[in-house]
Amino acid sequence: MKLLFRSYLASLRERGELDAILPDLLSELGYHVYSRPQRGTAQAGVDIAAVGLDDDGKKKVFLFSVKQGDLTRQSWNDGSAQALRPSLDEILDNYIPNRIPKRYQKLKIVICLVFGGDMQEQVRGTVNGYTRRNSNKKVSFDEWNGDKLAGLLLQGVLREEIMPKALRSHFQKSVALVDEPDIAYRHFSRLVRELTGLANSDKAKIRIARQLYIATWVLFVWARDIGNVEAAYQASELLLLTLWDLVRPFIGKKRSAAGKAITLVLHYAIQMHLAIASELVERKILPHVGIQDGIAMAVQGRSSADINLKLFDTLGRIALTGLWVHWLVERYTDENARAEARLKIAQFTEMGFKLINNNRTLFLPLQDQHGVEVAMFLLFVTAVNGNRHDAHAWLREMVNRLSYSIRTHGKYPCVFLDYRALVAHPRERTEEYRKEATAGSILIPILEAFLSALESKEALEKLLDLKAKELAHCTLQVWLPDASSEENLYNGKHDHGLTLTDLPLSSTGNELVSLIKNACDQTEGYGSLSAIVTGYWPIIITACRHRRMPIPPQMRIDMVYDPSIETENKG
Amino acid sequence: MAYAPVPSAEQIVDLYGTGELAAELARYHEDSEELFIQRCVELHNEKKINLVELPPQPGFKKITGHDFFTAQHFYCEAIPKLDADVVALMECCQSLIEQAGADGAAGQPNEAFRLWCQNNPAEGARVISKAREGDNLAKRFVTFALQASANMETAADFVQSYDDERRLFGMAALGRMPMADASKAHQATQVLEPFLVAVDDDNLRANALFAAFDVLKKYNDVDKASNFIEAATDKPGPATLHALAQIIWLHHKLMTSQTIEKALTALQAIQSDHKGTLRALDIGLNQLLAGGNRAAVIDFLTTTLRNDKITLEDFPTTTGELKRSDRRRLYEIIVRWFLSGSHALCDNVGNLIEFEDKNTFDASIVVPSELTAAHQAFLCRKAIGILFTRPVTCCSILVSVLRGGDKEVIEEVVDLLFEPMLVNYSGKALDYLKTIAVEDPAYASVQTALDRHRAYLAGLEKPGLIKELHPSDYQRDVVRQRTYDEMRAAQKSAEQESVLLSVVHRSTLLYGKRSLTYVFDDDGGRRAVSLDLHSVGVSFEMPRQDVLDPVGLDFMLRVFRVEKIQ
Questions:
Q1: Of A361, A389, A347, A357, nearest to A291 (Cα)?
Q2: Domain assignments of chain B as residue spans, ordered by start
C-alpha cells in the first residue's frame, strides 16, 4: 500500500496536484490548516501554512513549500522563481517577519520542504548547508519527501482504524485494475458505498469526504500514468455526487464546521473533476475533432454500436465539462481566469459541433437514453449562447435520420439498455420487434421542445408524421423530479420522480412545451432540490449523466420557453 | 462408386426368385454393362424371368435417386429387345416414367418404347388401334407408336379427326416423323398450319407450332418459319409462349433476325411464375448472344426486366455469358440500364457483376461522349448506389467517366471517388486506382482523389490510442461471440445448400496438414492415398462507414438508388 502511494506521489505532475491533497492530509493528521494554496495570490513562498504538534510534542507553525517530483539541482535553484530555494528565501525574508498571524507569532516555526519524490544526492549537500545555515532557535527545517508523505497518508486519512482492510482492498483493486475501467469503477463504487455507510457523525463525514477525495486523486494519477483516465472520470463524478450527498444535511446551517469542511473538499473535488475531464476531453478528444472520422476510428470498435455509444457519451462529457466551466466563470474573482474560461466555453461548443460534423454517427443515437446527452449538449449550447444554426442543422438531420431509420427498420434509437441487445439491434425487421424497441421515448420530446424553440416547422411536421404513422404505440415521456428525488438523485439508491406521459406533438411544438411548463409549475420536486436551491445546478446534470436519468425539463425550459405561448394558448 | 461383378444367368434367376433382382438392376456392373443387359434380356425372352413386371412392384419402387436412374438406363437399353405383351410393356414404361418424377430424363423410356414399336410393327399398330378405341394407356403411348410407324397419313388423320388429346399426340408424331422429301414436309406443315391461329386453344396452338418447327428442322423454309411465328405471336397464351421460347432455343437457326425479334417481342409477355418457359428462353437467349443477335437480346432484357417480378436470376446462363465475355458490351448495358430510370433495371445490374469484383473496365472504356454532365454524374451516383459492395467495378465506372474529361463533372466524380468510395474501401479499390497509368486521361483526377485519401488515412492515425474510448473486454467478447455465431450459421447454411458436399464423403481432420487413407483395390491389396490440405476461403472488404456511420451510409446509398434523372 505504501508503495502505491509512493508511486502516486512521485507521479504527480503539477505542483498544484500535491497542493491539492496536502491540506486535507494535514487536517486529518490533526494539523490546523490556516492558509491554503490559492491561485494567483502572492504567498511569499508558502504554499500551505498550518499549526500542529511536532514530533517533540510542542505546538509549532508549519510552513510548507511544495514542489512536484524529485528535488534536483534544477528544482532546488535554477534561477527561476519556481525553484525551491527562492521560495525558502522568501519565507525567511518575507513570510516569517510579516505574515505569520499574530496568534501564532510566539510559536516555533518548521519550514517543510515538500516534494513528491526523493531528494537527489548531488543536491543534498547544498540543501543541508542551506538549512543548517538558516536554522536557529525559532526556525528549523524538515524534509517531507514522497516516502514520508506516503507514510503520513497511511497513518492519516487511510489508516486502518478508519479505512478497514476490506475497503482498502477495493481501493487497491480499483487502482490495480485502472486499465479495465468497468472493473476499477465497480471496486471504487463499492469503496464509496461502504465508506459512506460509516458516516455516523459529522467528524466521520468530514473524514470520509477527505478519504474519498484523496483516493480519487490516487486513482486519477495512476490512471493518467497508464494513459486511461476512464475509471478516474467516472470515480470523480461519483465523488462529486457522494460529497454533495454528504454536504446536503448542512445546507442552511451557516455555522457548521463540518458543512464548511465538506464544502471545501467539494470545491477541490470539482477542480479535480475538471482536471480529469480536461485530461480526457481537452488533451485527447478536442485536438482531433476536426479530423473526419478521427474520433470514431479511435474507438477501435468492431460494432457500429460501440462507436455510437462512445461518441454520444463523449459528447455528453464535453457538454458537462463545458457546463461546469460555465458555472465556475461567475465564481472566478480573477478577470483573466474568467476570460480564459469564457474562451474555453466557446471552444467547447465549437469543438462539440466539429465532433458531430466529423463523426456522423452523432446524428442519431442508437439508444433512446442518449437523449440525456442530446439534451445536455443542447442545454450547454443554449446556456452559453452557442451556435443556434449548427444546433438547428444537427437536430434537422437527426429527425431525418430518425424518420428514415424507423421506416426502413434500420438502426433507429431503441429503448434497450443491455449491450447485447444494442449490438444486435435491430434483431428483427418486423413490426412487432420495432414496437418493442420503440415502446417509449425521451428523445422525441427533447427534439420537439428544442425544434419548437428553433421554430423548425418542417422538422416538427416530420416528427408529427412519424409519430402518427409509425410510432402511435410509442409513449412519449418527460421525467420530472418529485419530493423523493432530493433523497435519491445523488446516491441513485431508489427510483424517484414522476413521468409525464402521452405528450402531444404538433407542427409548432407549442402544445408540448406548454404542457411540460404547466406540469413543471405544478410539481415541487425540482425547486426543492438542494443543488438548485444552492445554485450548484451542474450537480443535477452530473447526477443525471452518471445515474442515467433524463435531464429535468426545468433546466432547459427557461431557455426554450416563450411565455407568450402560454398567453396565446389561453387566448 | 462400387462396381458389382456381372451375375451369371443362374444367379440372375435366383435373384429374380428371391425378389432381389430389382436391386441388382440398380447396380453398376464390372467390365460390361451390356453383358448384364444381354443376359437379362435372354433370360426374359426365355421366360425364366419377367423384367416387364418388375417396375410396378414395391421392391422396385423402393429404389431411389441415382440408383433408380441406373435401373431406368437398364430398361431403356433392354426394352427394344424384349419379347413382351404391349399392354404390360406400356404399364412398365408408365411406371418407370412416373417414378422418375420431374427429372429431365424421366421421358427416356418413351424412346425405348418407340424403338420397341419399330421392332414390333404389329404390336405398334395395336397401340394405334387401341388408342383410336379410346384406351387411355394406349393414348398415352400412341405418339411413339405413330412415330415408329412412319405413316404420315395416319398421324395427319389423328390431327384432323380428333379434337381431344389424340390430336396433340398426332401433331407430336407428325413433327418427329422422318420426311422423305420437301414436299412431304410441306404436306405436314399444311396439316398443322390451321392450328397456329387457334387463339382460343393455347395448348393446341403451342403443340402445332412446335411440331411445325420440328418439320421445318428437316426441310427449312425461312418464309414459312416467319409466317408461323407471325401467326403464333398474335395473342399468345402461356403454352404458346413456352413453345416460342423452345423454338428460340432449339430452332433459332431456322429464323431471320426479324423473325427472332418478333418472337422476342411476343415473349415480353412472359410471366415470372412460368419457370419452365424462362429456363428455355434463358438457354435460347444465350445462344442468340453467340449467334449475332446481341442487340435483340439486350433490347428484350431491357424491356422485360422493367417488370420487377422477373430478374436476371431467371436467366442464369445468359447472365453468365453477359458477365464473362465482352466487357465493352457489359459496360454499355450497365450505362443503358442505369440511365433508364428504372429501379428494376438498375437493381439487375448487381447480377451482372461478379461477387469477387476482380474485373474492371479497362482504359479503353470511356463514358459515351453524347452524355451530358448531369447524366454522367447521375451514372456515377447510380453506380455507387447499386454496385457499392463491388467497389473495384464501381470505381472503374467512375474512372470511365473521368476519362471522358468533361470539366463540368470531374470535380463531383473526384468527390465521389474519395467519398464514399475510398473513405469506405482502402483495399482492392485503392489498389485498382493506383494502377491507373500516367497516360490514362483519368490519371490526374484519380491522383487528386488518392491524395485526399492519403490525407484522410493520415488523419485517422493522428488521435493515436485513446483507451478511454475503447470498448470493454466484456463488450469485445459479446461482439466476438456474435460474429462467431453469425459466421457459424452462415457456414451451416452454405453447407446445406452445397451440391458438392451432398454427394461426397466427408472426413473431418482434427490435427495435421495432410491426410492418409488406405483403400482396397480390386485384387484385395491395400493402397495408401495421401491428400495435402490447402485452405479455401472467400474474403470481402466491409465498408468502413458500415461501422462508423451505418445509418448515414444506408441513407446515402438509398438516395442514390432511388434517384431519378431530371
A1: A357
A2: 1-149
